[in-house]
Amino acid sequence: MELKGIHHVSAITASAANNVHFYTDVLGMRLVKKTINQDDPSVYHLFYADEIGNPGTDLTFFEIPRAGTTYPGISSISRTSLRVPNDGALKYWNNRLTEYGVDHDGMTEQGGRQVIHFRDPENQRLTLISDETNAGVKGGNVWEHSSVPADKGIIGLGPIKLTVQDPAPTINVLTRILTFRETGSYPSPIQEQDDIRVFATGEGGTGAEVHLEVRSDLPKERPGRGSVHHVAFRVDNENELAKWKDRIQAERIPNSGLVDRFYFKSFYFREPNGILFELATDGPGFATDEDVDHLGESLALPPFFENQRDAIEANLKPLDTTRPY
């Protein structure tokens, strides 16, 4: 068994409407699913991705209207990367972020790749990363109705960064249990801190990396709006997922057991530094209950919530995601 790369990253927003505006109108991602948090049906769960929500392209948000400020720290998923096709596309983004007044640091180099670090309106810590030299997991396809040109748009999730105080237990889980391998490192931007170490799985490349940062100068993160809830890694199918669950159980790591999210099957566990990991199947996908041309326009509910639709819709603040085309 071998994990195939990053499946999705799920974060927190305090405003679904503002979130939709930024990720669709400014970043040009497609809203492929407007649904509910299955663990709390009173709030939205929004999925942004490529043209059809291919695995490895999904950045998702739980709406928690009263979410407070995030205080960054250790035991966290401290940065999410979004892939663009090449260095030329990154130059386009450097101009676009400035044009839209997005807080960003300009183009810089990180581990041999060109990147732009930036923040969304809720201080979500994000990076655009160029696939110019990528030889690993392929990216997705930009939606034809994106607000960004197809040859410049976001094509998937890039490396995610974990920030911990003690790296050894996390490395043990990544390499001994989850089939990641250490492939390199690059200098930390923070003085007197260790290099950031790079771990890859499957075919490797930008879509299959975890970057591990050690910080001895930070308290534990206090999550809020703009923080990341969990990262999910790709598993091929349900049979393999069951074997992964058995492996985690054999290690005596507490876990959720198998969970049916309808659009994929998964299970969850925390690695020793407290960061929440999910393993999720590649299918069946987001077109299971909606026409591909109209993904994300209506409130989609898995069949096991359909009998509660009236009550659920009554508790949700209306969110218009219909499109003019």
TrEMBL record:
<feature type="domain" description="VOC">
    <location>
        <begin position="5"/>
        <end position="131"/>
    </location>
</feature>
<dbReference type="Pfam" id="PF00903">
    <property type="entry name" value="Glyoxalase"/>
</dbReference>
<dbReference type="InterPro" id="IPR029068">
    <property type="entry name" value="Glyas_Bleomycin-R_OHBP_Dase"/>
</dbReference>
<dbReference type="InterPro" id="IPR052537">
    <property type="entry name" value="Extradiol_RC_dioxygenase"/>
</dbReference>
<keyword id="KW-0223">Dioxygenase</keyword>
<dbReference type="InterPro" id="IPR004360">
    <property type="entry name" value="Glyas_Fos-R_dOase_dom"/>
</dbReference>
<protein>
    <submittedName>
        <fullName>Ring-cleaving dioxygenase</fullName>
    </submittedName>
</protein>
<dbReference type="GO" id="GO:0051213">
    <property type="term" value="F:dioxygenase activity"/>
</dbReference>
<keyword id="KW-0560">Oxidoreductase</keyword>
<dbReference type="InterPro" id="IPR037523">
    <property type="entry name" value="VOC_core"/>
</dbReference>
<feature type="domain" description="VOC">
    <location>
        <begin position="156"/>
        <end position="282"/>
    </location>
</feature>
